[in-house]
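stage 2 :: seqdesign
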Protein backbone atom coordinates (compact mmCIF):
# COMPACT_ATOMS: atom_id res chain seq x y z
CA UNK A 1 0.00 0.00 0.00
CA UNK A 2 2.86 2.39 0.76
CA UNK A 3 4.15 1.85 -2.80
CA UNK A 4 0.76 2.80 -4.26
CA UNK A 5 0.68 6.01 -2.17
CA UNK A 6 4.15 6.95 -3.39
CA UNK A 7 3.11 6.23 -6.99
CA UNK A 8 -0.02 8.35 -6.60
CA UNK A 9 1.98 11.19 -5.03
CA UNK A 10 4.50 11.05 -7.88
CA UNK A 11 1.71 11.14 -10.48
CA UNK A 12 0.07 14.10 -8.71
CA UNK A 13 3.39 15.95 -8.59
CA UNK A 14 4.00 15.32 -12.29
CA UNK A 15 0.48 16.56 -13.05
CA UNK A 16 1.01 19.75 -11.07
CA UNK A 17 4.34 20.39 -12.76
CA UNK A 18 2.79 19.85 -16.22
CA UNK A 19 -0.09 22.19 -15.37
CA UNK A 20 2.36 24.84 -14.14
CA UNK A 21 4.44 24.55 -17.34
CA UNK A 22 1.34 24.81 -19.52
CA UNK A 23 0.16 27.93 -17.67
CA UNK A 24 3.64 29.44 -17.91
CA UNK A 25 3.82 28.83 -21.67
CA UNK A 26 0.37 30.34 -22.26
CA UNK A 27 1.14 33.43 -20.15
CA UNK A 28 4.50 33.95 -21.84
CA UNK A 29 2.78 33.89 -25.22
CA UNK A 30 0.20 36.43 -24.08
CA UNK A 31 2.82 38.63 -22.42
CA UNK A 32 4.80 38.87 -25.65
CA UNK A 33 1.95 40.43 -27.64
CA UNK A 34 2.47 44.16 -28.17
CA UNK A 35 0.13 47.02 -28.97
CA UNK A 36 1.03 49.63 -31.55
CA UNK A 37 -0.72 52.94 -32.18
CA UNK A 38 -0.93 53.11 -35.96
CA UNK A 39 0.76 56.22 -37.30
CA UNK A 40 2.26 57.13 -33.92
CA UNK A 41 1.24 60.56 -32.65
CA UNK A 42 -0.58 61.48 -35.87
CA UNK A 43 -2.71 58.32 -35.78
CA UNK A 44 -4.56 56.69 -38.67
CA UNK A 45 -4.43 59.40 -41.32
CA UNK A 46 -3.14 60.15 -44.82
CA UNK A 47 0.32 58.96 -45.84
CA UNK A 48 0.37 56.23 -43.17
CA UNK A 49 1.53 53.62 -45.72
CA UNK A 50 5.17 53.78 -44.61
CA UNK A 51 4.48 53.63 -40.85
CA UNK A 52 5.08 49.83 -40.56
CA UNK A 53 8.54 50.03 -42.20
CA UNK A 54 11.30 48.92 -39.82
CA UNK A 55 8.90 47.43 -37.27
CA UNK A 56 8.75 43.71 -36.54
CA UNK A 57 5.19 42.54 -35.89
CA UNK A 58 4.15 39.18 -34.50
CA UNK A 59 0.87 37.32 -34.87
CA UNK A 60 -1.25 38.34 -31.89
CA UNK A 61 0.09 41.91 -31.74
CA UNK A 62 -2.64 44.53 -31.66
CA UNK A 63 -2.86 47.57 -33.90
CA UNK A 64 -4.73 50.50 -32.37
CA UNK A 65 -6.27 52.79 -34.97
CA UNK A 66 -6.91 56.26 -33.52
CA UNK A 67 -8.81 58.78 -35.64
CA UNK A 68 -11.78 61.11 -35.70
CA UNK A 69 -14.75 58.75 -36.33
CA UNK A 70 -16.57 61.24 -38.55
CA UNK A 71 -13.49 61.62 -40.76
CA UNK A 72 -12.25 58.05 -41.38
CA UNK A 73 -12.80 54.33 -40.92
CA UNK A 74 -10.68 51.17 -40.95
CA UNK A 75 -11.40 48.30 -43.30
CA UNK A 76 -9.48 45.03 -43.05
CA UNK A 77 -9.18 43.85 -46.64
CA UNK A 78 -7.37 41.23 -48.68
CA UNK A 79 -4.41 41.96 -50.98
CA UNK A 80 -6.69 42.71 -53.93
CA UNK A 81 -8.70 45.21 -51.87
CA UNK A 82 -5.48 46.86 -50.71
CA UNK A 83 -4.00 47.19 -54.20
CA UNK A 84 -7.22 48.44 -55.76
CA UNK A 85 -8.56 50.51 -52.84
CA UNK A 86 -11.80 48.57 -52.85
CA UNK A 87 -13.77 46.72 -50.20
CA UNK A 88 -14.28 43.05 -51.03
CA UNK A 89 -17.55 41.47 -49.90
CA UNK A 90 -17.36 40.36 -46.26
CA UNK A 91 -14.55 42.74 -45.23
CA UNK A 92 -14.38 43.85 -41.59
CA UNK A 93 -15.22 47.57 -41.24
CA UNK A 94 -14.93 49.58 -38.03
CA UNK A 95 -15.16 53.28 -37.27
CA UNK A 96 -15.10 54.00 -33.53
CA UNK A 97 -11.90 56.03 -33.73
CA UNK A 98 -10.22 53.76 -31.17
CA UNK A 99 -10.24 50.43 -32.96
CA UNK A 100 -8.12 47.50 -31.79
CA UNK A 101 -7.33 44.84 -34.40
CA UNK A 102 -5.28 41.73 -33.64
CA UNK A 103 -2.80 40.76 -36.33
CA UNK A 104 -2.95 37.30 -37.80
CA UNK A 105 0.13 35.49 -39.07
CA UNK A 106 1.11 36.62 -42.56
CA UNK A 107 -0.04 39.67 -44.48
CA UNK A 108 -2.65 42.02 -42.99
CA UNK A 109 -4.09 44.80 -45.14
CA UNK A 110 -6.02 47.89 -44.04
CA UNK A 111 -7.59 50.80 -45.90
CA UNK A 112 -9.89 53.74 -45.27
CA UNK A 113 -12.69 53.41 -47.80
CA UNK A 114 -14.02 56.95 -47.66
CA UNK A 115 -13.82 58.59 -51.11
CA UNK A 116 -10.22 59.38 -52.09
CA UNK A 117 -8.66 58.40 -48.75
CA UNK A 118 -7.07 55.09 -49.76
CA UNK A 119 -5.78 56.51 -53.04
CA UNK A 120 -4.13 59.32 -51.05
CA UNK A 121 -2.12 56.96 -48.84
CA UNK A 122 -4.60 55.93 -46.20
CA UNK A 123 -3.79 52.28 -46.52
CA UNK A 124 -1.30 50.00 -44.91
CA UNK A 125 0.16 46.52 -45.31
CA UNK A 126 1.57 44.79 -42.22
CA UNK A 127 3.35 41.44 -42.14
CA UNK A 128 3.22 39.51 -38.88
CA UNK A 129 5.59 36.61 -38.20
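stage 2 :: out
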Amino acid sequence: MAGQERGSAAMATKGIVMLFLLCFIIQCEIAQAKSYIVGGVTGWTFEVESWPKGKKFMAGDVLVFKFLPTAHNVVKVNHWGYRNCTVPKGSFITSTGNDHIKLRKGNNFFICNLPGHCLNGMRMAVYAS
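stage 3 :: structure notes
- The CA atoms of residues 76 and 92 lie 5 Å apart.
- The chain is about 30% helix and 25% strand.
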